[in-house]
Structures are given as C-alpha cells and as structure tokens.
Design a protein that fits this description.
CATH topology of chain B: Neuraminidase
Largest sheet of chain B: 6 strands, mixed
CATH superfamily of the largest domain in chain A: MFS general substrate transporter like domains
Low-confidence stretches of chain B: 146-152
Protein name (chain B): TolB-like translocation protein
Distance between the termini of chain B: 67 Å
CATH class of chain B: Mainly Beta
Strand order of the largest sheet of chain B: 13-12-17-16-15-14
Helix content of chain A: over 70%
Low-confidence stretches of chain A: 1-19
Number of strands of chain B: 26
CATH architecture of chain B: 6 Propeller
Structural class of chain A: mainly alpha
Helix content of chain B: under 10%
Number of helices of chain B: 1
Organism (chain B): Actinomadura rayongensis
Number of strands of chain A: 0
Number of domains of chain B: 1
Oligomer: heterodimer
InterPro entries (chain B): 6-blade_b-propeller_TolB-like
Chain lengths: 413, 326
C-alpha cells in the first residue's frame, strides 16, 4: 500500500522533482518500516476487537447499552496518563524498544481474557489493560520513528508509518467479520485470532526493531523542561488550541449521516471512507510537509477540516457531500497526525524525545476530550446546525492564533 | 542474527499462529454446526422452563430447557441459537444477531418444535422480544447502532409482526401518538419493550425529550396513548391488571439507574419490588404472583425471581440463563 501511495504522490504533482519510487523506498529507515509493520499487524488485532465489541457486549452477553457506554468511556479515558509515564520511562532507561514492547505485549496478553471474562468488571479490566498497553507504547514508538529518520525526512517517515498503521485498521474489521462468518457467528475465535495477530506483532518488534542507543537518562525535570524550549512550547500551544476546537470523528460522522441522509445500516462504513483517504494521502502529504514546511501543511490540514465543516453547513447533500467530506476528513488526518510528530520531534533533544512527544500527545488528547464533551453539550442545547456553526467559528479563530504562534520568526529560526 | 534468519523466524511464527487461529476458528464453527441439530423439545411442555443457555461451551446461546422443579438439573439443549427469545401458545420468536460491518438481526418465528416458519431481517442489535398470549402477534426491539456514538442517547426501533398473515409494522414510530389527551408530534420519539394484552392491544415504552412514558397501543387503529410517566420495559400481568417495569430512580451516570416497580393500572398505584439491585431487563411473569428477570452474572446473565407485590426477597432461579419462558 506504500507503493500505491507513492504513486499517488507522483500523480498528485505536488512533488516538484520526480523521485523514482525505489529511491523513496530506500530513504525510509528500516526501523520505520519495521515499526510500520508492527503497527499494521497490531492494528488488525485491536480493530478486530473494537469492531465486534458493541455487538458482543449487547447481543452476545446481554449487557445494556448503558454498561457499554460506561465501558466505552473507560476505553478512551485510560490511556492519557500512562502515555506520559511510558514516554518518560522510555527516555529514562533509554529503552524505547523495551517500553514499547511492554505496551504491545500487554495488549496481546489481554486478548485471551475476553474468552473467559463475561462480567462487566472483568471485561472492563481487560479493556483498561488493553488501553494501558496502547498508551504506554505510543510515545516511545513515535520517538523511535523520529530518532531513526534524518531531520529533513521526518514527514515522510511518519507518513509511511501512519499509512501502514491505517492499512491495519482497515483490515481489522474485515478479518473480524470473515472470522465470524467462518465460525458460524461465534465470538470466541475473533478474540483468539486477534491474540494471534498481536503475538505476531510482538515477534516482529522483537526481531526487527532496533533500539536507539543513548546515554541520556532523563529526569522528570528534564522531561518537563522541554516546555521551556520556545519553539516546542509554541507547537504545543498551537496544537492544544486546535485540538480544543476540532470536532471529534464521532460527531463528524453523525452530522454527515444526518446531512447526507446515509441509511443507518451504512453508518459503520463512514470511518472506512476517512481511513481510505488517510491511507492514500499519508505518504504524499508527509513528503509535501518535508518539502513545503511542516507548519504550513499542519495548518493547511486544519483549513481542510474547516472546509469539511463548511461543506456540512451547505445545503449540499447526497453522494457528493458524502464523498467530498470523507476524502477531506482523511486529508485532514494525513496533514496533521503524523506531520505534527514530524514537526515536533526534531525540536526535542534525543534524550527527552519520547517524554516530550508524550507531553504533546497527552495535551492534545485531553483537549480533544474536553472539546468532545463541550460539543456534545452544544449539540444538545442548540441542535447540530448551530453547534457546528459555533465549532467552525472557534476552529477558524484557533487556526488564526495557531498561525500567529507557528509563523513567528523567532520560532521558525 | 542475519536478516534472513529473522525473516525465517517471523515466517515460522506466522505459520504456527495462522494454524492456531485457523484451527480454533474452524473447530468453533464445526462445533456450532454439530450442535445445530441439537436435542428436540416442545415449547409449552408443562413443568419445563425454556431459556437461552449462557453457559460456556458448544451449547452457548442455544435455547435450552430444564425441569421447573429442578432448575439446577440437567439441561436439554436444542439446535436453535437466539440472542433474545419469547414464546406463547406454541409460537416462539427467536431474535438472532447477524454480525457484519452493519450489524443486523434475523427475527425467526418458530413453531412449538422450534422449526422456523418465517424470517424477518433488518438492521440493529437485538434487545427485547415478546409474543402475544395467543401466539399470533410478535414484537421486537433493536438498538440502531449508528446512534450509540458520542454519548448521545441511543436509538431503538420496535416492530410488530402478525405471524399468521405475515403483515409487518416495521416501526411503531409511524403510529399516531396521543400525549396527555392531545396529538403529539416530535422527531425524537423512540419505542421499546412491547408487552401484549391481546392480539390488537399492547403496552410499551415511549421516550421523547429525555422522558419515558407507559403507552397503551392499538395495532388496528395505529395509535398509542400515554398513561404514566417514567416507565420502561413494561410487562403485563397474566390477568391484565398490573404491569411490572423499570423505573428510573437515579441518574444514568451512577450506572444503576433502575428499580423494579409494580403499577396497578386501575389505581395507578406504584409499589417498589423487593429487589434493591439495578435491573435492566423486561421482567416476565412466572405466575400471578411472581416475576423473573435477568441480572449480570458470571456468564453474562443469571435469572432471579421476586414476588410481584413488593413483599419477600429475591432468589436466584437459574444460573447462566436469559429470557426464560415458563
């Protein structure tokens, strides 16, 4: 999928100098490809479970949607603070691979728990452990990608990794429903197959991912001191502002379903549209970020999200709205998710890179959670249209502020 | 270690894991197919309780039957797999889930020997089902998955089928609503938990603007009328004079919002039942004086019973069981 994405990059013409595919591939550090493969395999495993979980809990175990909502909250909330701990530990022991490996292994080991846990507390504990694993591994993994790539090719490296990651997320649900139909609609094999994928991911990590040797042993103070670096602090402030005003995926899909009149049965397919666009654009936009400036592409990505909001506010409907919105929503992710890591990574000394990225990611995730709650409330009080209008206004203001923060001459220099 | 060696190790691991995954999947599939034949039993046999078996193993989710006199005794497990089930007068409704990218259901009407007679397929996750006392009408409620997201209120869809003619009312939301005596129109109406009085009259829950109501409905006039506020999942007593229902007594964020209540339809008197725990189930009348309901247990659900008049204490009736029919 990386090759086809590369071809799109050429076809898009955004690349001025035509680079033969082979040399693009050669410039990607083996470590990045290895981490991409680990993420791909692990995402197949975790998205398999995510895809069947609501059905398993409500239809399979007979739990109420209320209990499901409660578990869903746990699922999302558990990862924020272990992420900080994971990033810091990775720096401290200069063991990015070990900490990330622990995260991957933990998520793998909880999969069989789903086979035996049938009570809400049991499944809740398994979900929390799974999320802890994800939280712990994210920052060390991104730090390894960053440390394994030259400063001028960070965007491309993250683009390749995110494309592989998304490919896994796309395959997961397909594998899950394939297994369900092969196993006469039994859920146990889904968890078993998910476990097998997760174990394979850990094996690939152990064998192919190289750790970065370093002497730095970061203290908590050193990790927090990253915020005293003006350029990094500005990036943190800008991304926090933008995350506070970014309408979350769930709401984008709900709005899209209402505006484009998508039949409810196709609702679960909407994220697939975003993921497909993200998959195709992650590498081209990563390369574009390296060439045109990561700040520009990051800001442009949010302009694209504003465009999605604008589209949802127009009387446009039907397939045109659906396809355009999902394509642009995927472009927003391709221009912001990996690109932000590529932007921030080189600003951090190698010894505090995982901890620093963890600070940035946690801030972003917390802001996004706040935004989601606020948008939900606005939706309830004002209705979807006014809520979206308000969110778009806020995003535009935050975008201007972020523009001012990021294009400040001192910061760029 | 050379790259070649490492690639070989990964390939070997992938092979072994792939084998484990395939064997596990196919064995689960074939064991499901094998028990697909299952044992024979007849609905409505006196002295037998029929329910969905929640025990782990090849019979999981199959309809099973056990002697009412010895609920912990051996279970007879049929070949019919159901997510939700109810039956009356020799007609059963087996609500099965059909997993897929868009979750769907298959509502299967079965006769007393559990032979399928009709299928109605649709979108949503199975939640409740009831058959009218004569066995002619069947109702079911599903959760429509799309609206489960983002902390918004979930959405339900309730359908009623005439099992004799095949006439289907796809959604009660097409019925005219009379609320407090006047015609009521709102975009956010949701129905769930039908309980039948006879083949035309039923009770159900209507939710709108964050409140729930007990409604009395009529399938020929295609209308419902609100009767009482804060009623969910009503269950009509065999003599038709009272309902047992879930009353919201605490905030949903507590995780235990509901308490089982009895409502006498003539006097509108509410009586809390002697079950202190949160119950999220549509209760079932065992006889004129007792009801049964599901509580979370080691295998997902256990069945409990309590007197229907507020006295007594809850007792466990069946372990690892759901949706019993007496």
């Amino acid at each position: 999928m990386y090759l086809s994405a590369g071809r799109v990059a050429d076809a898009a013409g955004g690349v001025r100098r035509r680079v033969p595919l082979r040399s693009v591939a050669r410039n990607i550090a083996p470590n990045v490809v290895a981490l991409g493969a680990v993420s791909l395999i692990t995402d197949v495993s975790s998205e398999m479970v995510t895809a069947v979980l609501p059905l398993y809990l409500v239809a399979g175990l007979g739990l109420s949607p209320l209990a499901f909502g409660f578990l869903d909250g746990l699922y999302g909330g558990a990862s924020a603070f272990v992420r900080l701990a994971g990033g810091h530990l990775a720096d401290r022991r200069t063991g990015h691979k070990a900490v990330a490996g622990f995260g991957y292994a933990l998520s793998a080991l909880v999969k069989p728990v789903f086979l035996v846990a049938t009570s809400v507390p049991g499944i809740g504990a398994a979900l929390v452990a799974d999320r802890v694993g994800k939280g712990v591994r994210t920052a060390p993994r991104d730090a390894l990608i960053s440390l394994s790539s030259p400063p001028d090719a960070q965007g491309r490296a993250f683009g390749v990794h995110r494309a592989m990651d998304t490919a896994g997320a796309l395959l997961g649900p397909l594998v899950a429903f394939g297994v369900l139909s092969a196993a006469s609609q039994r859920y146990d094999p889904v968890f078993m197959v998910s476990f097998c994928f997760a174990v394979l991911g850990v094996v690939v990590l152990v064998l192919f991912v190289q750790d970065r040797k370093g002497t730095a042993t970061a203290s908590v103070r050193a990790t927090l001191a990253v915020l005293r670096r003006p350029a990094f602090a500005r990036v943190c402030a800008a991304s926090l502002l933008l995350a506070t005003t970014t309408v979350s995926d769930a709401f984008v899909y709900l709005l899209l379903q209402k505006m484009a009149d998508v039949p409810v049965r196709y609702f679960p397919l909407l994220p697939v549209g975003t993921a497909a666009s993200y998959l195709l654009l992650a590498v081209p936009l990563g390369i574009a970020a390296d060439r045109l400036g990561r700040r520009r592409v990051f800001l442009a990505g949010h302009a694209v999200l504003l465009l999605v909001c604008a589209l949802l506010l127009t009387p446009l409907g039907g397939t045109v709205l659906l396809v355009a919105s999902l394509a642009l929503h995927g472009a927003f992710y391709a221009a912001t998710d990996g690109v932000l890591m590529a932007l921030a990574g080189p600003m951090l000394p190698a010894g505090t890179r995982a901890g620093g990225l963890a600070v940035l990611q946690t801030g972003q995730a917390t802001a996004a959670l706040g935004c989601s709650v606020a948008f939900g409330a606005a939706w309830t009080w004002w209705g979807p249209h006014t809520a979206l209008l308000a969110a778009s206004g806020a995003l535009a203001v935050a975008g201007l502020a972020a523009f001012a923060l990021l294009t400040n001459r001192k910061a760029v220099a | 270690m050379t790259t070649r060696t490492r690639l070989l190790i990964v390939a070997a691991c992938a092979l072994v894991l792939g084998l484990v995954a395939t064997v596990f999947t196919l064995r689960a599939g074939s064991s499901a197919a094998k028990t697909g034949q299952g044992a024979q039993f007849t609905l409505g046999t006196p002295g037998r309780i029929v329910f969905r078996d929640m025990r782990m193993g090849p019979g999981k989710d199959h309809l099973a039957s056990v002697a009412a006199a010895d609920p912990n005794g051996p279970r007879t497990v049929s070949g019919l797999v159901c997510a939700r089930f109810h039956a009356a007068a020799g007609t059963g409704l087996c609500l099965r889930d059909v997993p897929g990218l868009a979750p769907g259901y298959d509502a299967v009407v079965v006769d007393a020997q559990l032979r399928p007679k009709r299928h109605v397929k649709g979108t949503g996750v199975p939640s409740r089902t009831r058959v009218s006392p004569s066995g002619r009408m069947a109702a079911w409620t599903v959760f429509v998955s799309g609206d489960n997201y983002g902390g918004l209120n979930f959405s339900t869809r309730t359908s009623i089928l005439d099992t004799r003619t095949g006439h289907l009312i796809p959604s009660l939301e097409t019925f005219t609503v009379y609320k407090d005596g006047t015609r009521y129109q709102a975009a956010d109406t949701n129905f769930w938990g039908v309980t039948f009085k006879d083949d035309t009259h039923f009770y159900a829950t209507l939710a709108t603007h964050g409140k729930t109501y007990l409604v009395a409905g009529d399938t020929t006039r295609r209308e419902v009328t609100t009767l009482h506020a804060n009623v969910e999942c009503p269950s009509l007593s065999p003599d038709g004079t009272a309902i047992v229902y879930k009353k919201r007594v605490r905030d949903a964020s507590t995780g235990r919002p509901w308490h089982l209540y009895r409502l006498d339809l003539a006097t509108r008197r509410e009586t809390p039942l002697a079950e202190a725990r949160n119950v999220d189930d549509q209760a079932l009348w065992i006889d004129a004086a007792h009801i049964a309901y599901s509580l979370p247990g080691d295998y997902g659900s256990d069945l409990w019973t309590v007197p229907a008049d507020g006295t007594g204490a809850p007792t466990k009736l069946l372990q690892a069981a759901l949706n019993a029919v007496f």
